[in-house]
Amino acid sequence: MFFKLAVVLTLLVINSVADDVNFTYNGFQSTDLSLQNLAVVSSNGLLKLASTDYSFFTAAAFYKDSVKLKNSTNGTAFSFSTTFVFAIVPDLLFRDLSGHGMAFVISPTQGLPYASATQYLGLFNYSNNGDPSNHIVAVELDTFQNEEFEDIDDNHVGVDVNGLKSVESHGAGYYVGSTGQFRNLTLPSGRPMQVWVEYDNQEQRMNVTLAPINVRKPKFPLLSLPIDLSPIVNETVYLGFSSATGRLRASTYILGWSFMINGQAKELDISKLPKLPGSASRQTSKLLTIGLPLIFMSLVYATVSGVVYLIKRKRKFADVVEDWECEYGPQRFKYKDLYMATQGFRDKGLLGTGGFGKVYKGTLPTSRQEIAVKIVSHGSGQGMKEFIAEIVCLGRLRHRNLVRLLGYCRRKGEMLLVYEYLPNGSLDKYLYGQPKVTLNWGQRFRVIKGVASGLLYLHEEWEQIVIHRDVKASNVLLDGELNARLGDFGLARLYDHGTDPHTTHVAGTRGYLAPEYTRTGKATTRTDLFAFGAFLLEVACGRRPIEPQAGKVVLVDEVFSFWQKGKILDVKDPKLGTDFAAEEVELVLKLGMLCSHSNPVARPSMRQVMHYLEGDIPLPDISLLSLTASGLTFAPREGSEDAVLPHLSLIVESVLSGGR
Ligand SMILES: *[C@@H]1O[C@H](CO)[C@@H](O)[C@H](O)[C@H]1NC(C)=O
Ligand SMILES: *[C@@H]1O[C@H](CO)[C@@H](O)[C@H](O)[C@H]1NC(C)=O
Ligand SMILES: *[C@@H]1O[C@H](CO)[C@@H](O)[C@H](O)[C@H]1NC(C)=O
Ligand SMILES: *[C@@H]1O[C@H](CO)[C@@H](O)[C@H](O)[C@H]1NC(C)=O
Ligand SMILES: *[C@@H]1O[C@H](CO)[C@@H](O)[C@H](O)[C@H]1NC(C)=O
Ligand SMILES: *[C@@H]1O[C@H](CO)[C@@H](O)[C@H](O)[C@H]1NC(C)=O
Ligand SMILES: *[C@@H]1O[C@H](CO)[C@@H](O)[C@H](O)[C@H]1NC(C)=O
Q1: pLDDT per residue as tens digits for the range 411-427
Q2: Residue nearest to atom 14 of ligand 4 (CA)
Q3: Which of 391, 420, 449 is the last residue of a domain?
Q4: Ligand 2 neighbours (beta carbon < 6 A)
């Protein structure tokens, strides 16, 4: 009886507030939102709109349901209030120039498919900008000064009605406490900030307030303008955010959002908001550039952690931490955290066992970020300092086609490497060994270009030359959209450091090892090119470079003999069917042979490879390169590479000698 009554009461309550939309998200799930173009919700609940990885793109995310914003009887817009936390993280390469910005938007449609990128912020396009039939109201967080829209500066907040020429705008900042002193803020600072937007239909006024995340809502709004939304917005609207990149790029994020019609939107719980990616590593670089006081503090920290270390070493979760490691603070994970994250390295979470060791899936307890933890055993402590300096260095690599190394942890005899987790696993699973899902040619070609772009970055575009040393399909992981991400870069060095440092140990995988590398043990960018060649053939033919069964068939020899017979396309993966671009397949196969040349000097550079793949320059006629079957495979050509090749073998020498 009581139960029934309670149900009835609940229903009544729900009914009476059903029209007054009211929601609060301290972090999102992808089902809460309609995501468009680049927009994604990461596993820790962070909404990412635009991305530094993509130029000239738009992104938008809308609340999943429509919202009734006007009284249908008298056509008056309701009062509402909303608050959200955002962050604009500029491209690290162009710190001072940081994309175009983002906007909170009220739109008649769930999506703005005709809107343009760059200065149009994904809200409008050249022809509909300023058109009253748009029925769009937006609050822009604009990080670029466009003369055409009479922007006041390149760091302002504005209210836009149907167009990008703001009705009212103000330089970003906030009024402190009751004194009302104004403080500037930099929108693209990479730090989270909070915005409040309030509309009062009696007063016909809209207020917009901005503040850093750790500051309570300022008493005085940044913008307060008279406006009647009733003639502008539609009765049923969609609420969301849009953002765009141009040649200038920034990543834009929403961390949390609440909204309420006819009432005060619920305060966000700052402690529950998802963390921004890489916030730890940004702190590191700060640490290293700030002067004496911090050095003193880190000395104290070093002493304290030294003491803590002594106390802790007997415990179960003992990490091995040497004092020189303290400077790597945030990139060093605690063993205990990784133990918790992987629920004690259970077999259930085992993702795979590779040449280097076991890999487990985990979720970091505080940020809820999904990770992959690789456990590698190592021998003596010799060379460990260099190796860790190198890991930390590799952790600073950022490229859309590289798997991010988030950090490491060290125990006695064990090294744990923490990577971002990629749900689709490694490429080899889609190529051979009875794949459940195979990739079509378009997807494979995109994967190839992605890997090439990642390798080019390692070889030529980063501050130091990084040699991968183990390029192969099983080291290529696929993200949610089947983009290739090259993993495990530079780690073959572990063998050099972990075992006896006086013998040069050739690390890598058979079938991908350049002949000069097996002889001299010296890895170069050209040895990576050799492995990349094997990888190209592997992807086009859907087979391993050396098939262990079938009497050790060497793939490159087979491609070579098909090419000699003038039937190179016949060697391609039969699983490709008939839907493929013959000229692309041929290009990839020939390029694979060219990269497999036993003379390292005859192999192209990664930049040339990129040009060939993009079709910028035609592939040289390989018949002119005196290719012979023996030239392609393991027969060494005397006196060639050692004399010709400069000593490219890298890596972090400058880090080790000069400090940072
Ligand atoms: C807003 O919604 C939440 C949960 O849906 C509810 O608990 C709360 O009472 C609502 N607030 C108002 C003022 O209606
Ligand atoms: C809508 O307007 C009518 C007439 O002005 C009024 O009676 C009614 O209460 C309003 N409805 C809401 C939900 O405010
Ligand atoms: C019209 O509707 C709005 C919103 O519901 C309400 O605030 C207002 O009082 C209504 N006006 C009249 C004249 O009833
Ligand atoms: C928005 O309202 C206008 C004017 O009432 C109407 O012409 C238009 O079709 C509406 N848009 C949508 C998407 O409903
Ligand atoms: C601009 O957007 C409108 C819809 O608002 C669309 O009809 C039009 O084709 C777009 N124009 C361009 C040049 O994209
Ligand atoms: C705040 O920004 C404005 C506009 O860019 C500038 O004129 C002013 O000097 C800045 N104030 C401070 C204290 O930096
Ligand atoms: C907007 O700000 C003004 C000035 O601080 C204040 O008087 C007014 O009540 C505010 N209105 C809303 C809807 O918050």
Answers
A1: 777 788 898 898 888 89
A2: 108
A3: 420
A4: 71, 73-74
Residue 81: what pLDDT? 97
Q: Kindly state whether residue 577 falls inside one of the protein's structural domains.
A: yes
449 and 406 in a common domain? no
DSSP structure class, residue 147: G
Domain-located, residue 310 = no
Pocket test for ligand 7, best of 205, 209, 260, 264 (most atoms within 8 A of CB): 205
Please give the pLDDT value at position 332.
80
Give yes or no for residue 254 having a pLDDT over 80: yes
pTM, two decimal places: 0.52
Q: Consult the annotation and say whether 374 binds a ligand.
A: yes
Q: Which residues contact 99 (CB under 8 A, 6 or more apart)?
A: 50, 52, 88, 90, 91, 143, 144, 188, 243, 244, 245, 246, 248, 249, 250, 252
Catalogue the active-site residues. Answer: 470
Looking at the structure, tell me whether residues 510 and 415 fall in a common domain.
no
If you take atom 14 of ligand 5, which residue's CA is the nearest one?
Answer: 114
Please state the domain count of the chain: 3
Q: Output the CA 224–ligand 7 centroid distance in Å.
A: 7
190 closest CA partner among 101, 45, 87, 282: 87
Task: Tell me which range, 238-242, 296-300, 303-307, 640-644, is most confidently predicted by mean pLDDT.
Answer: 238-242
Establish if 279 belongs to a structural domain. Answer: no
How confident is residue 70, by pLDDT bands cut at 50, 70 and 90? very high
**Ligand 7 atom at minimum distance from 220 CA:** 5
Burial of 558 (C-beta count, 10 Å sphere; 0-12/13-18/19+): middle
